[in-house]
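pasting for the record
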Amino acid sequence: MSSASFLSPPAPRPPCARVRLSPPFAAAARPSLGFGPRSRRAAPAKEWRLWHVSCFRNDPDVPTTSDDDGGFKYVARSESSSAAEAKEEEVGSSNGEQEQNFKEGGWFLQVQKIKENLQGRILRFQTERWTVPWTGQTIAQVMILWIATFWFVGSWVVPFLAHAAGFSKETLTHRGQALYSLLTDITEGLAGIAILHQCLGRFRPLPPGWFEFNLKGRWLLDVALGCLLFPLVNLLSHINISLVPMSPGPVVGVSSVEQSIVARDPVAMALYAVVVTVCAPIWEEIVFRGFLLPSLTRYMPLPWSILASAAAFALAHFNAQRVMPLIFLGVVMGGVFARSRNLLASMLLHSLWNGFVFLDLMK
């Protein structure tokens, strides 16, 4: 009989005749149910196995476990699968509990993480310092020479050169006065940089972190946050003006700018815009944030250094009506510089503030 005939659906047939074996043969045909050692018999022929399945599959007397222990192996695989499913259910329940705990206490953990991060930033901000190779004597020397040079250039050098060229400041037009202010500011800035170069020359090469200009980093975000405080600076300016009476006599620099704005001279306004948004921020930030603020960290914590440099920045403008807003503005620019360690950040913030004031005057 071929095996293909048994793999196809069987046709109706009469029941197979049961073969009766004698007791010795019947006992030998049944598999032993004991667990002791036994000899493995040779596998029957394929035709006999198929005939055995087809004829005796419904016979209750035929054992369900074959001689090659296939049933025991199936039971073992079933138990292993059950253990794996139980383990997966346990892991799933554990993940569900973790997710539930995160939903219930995740916000608290996030708040704690933000709090720790903020405390770390504040502590680092308070303890960070620059490596200052010079002493207070050099700091005082640079600042005194800078103030003296600032006054000497603006009051004597530039007027003398203008007079030697046949010009008088009183008779200059709006454009002439704007050009005069631009040349004065450029000369004062170059003189200040020359003083720094001369006084700090013996300490070169400078330690890392000094007078850094870097286009990379997140300093633009710090500048944007600083710009949000401009309305508060403007409010302090109005409060300061109300507390300090206006001194008799006009302020020369401000009146020249206002006269040019009233006259609507585009060339004069463009020259003044260059003065207040380009020249002044560059050399002022180099002196006050680039040199003075880091130098003071040799003797005081960083927050006090920021405040002291901001006070010096306000006093250098020689205007009692602008002391309060300039101190606050100096603190903001000092904080931005200390956080970014980048002079471009404080220069840009300074330029934006001066531009804000200039546009306010044009209204």
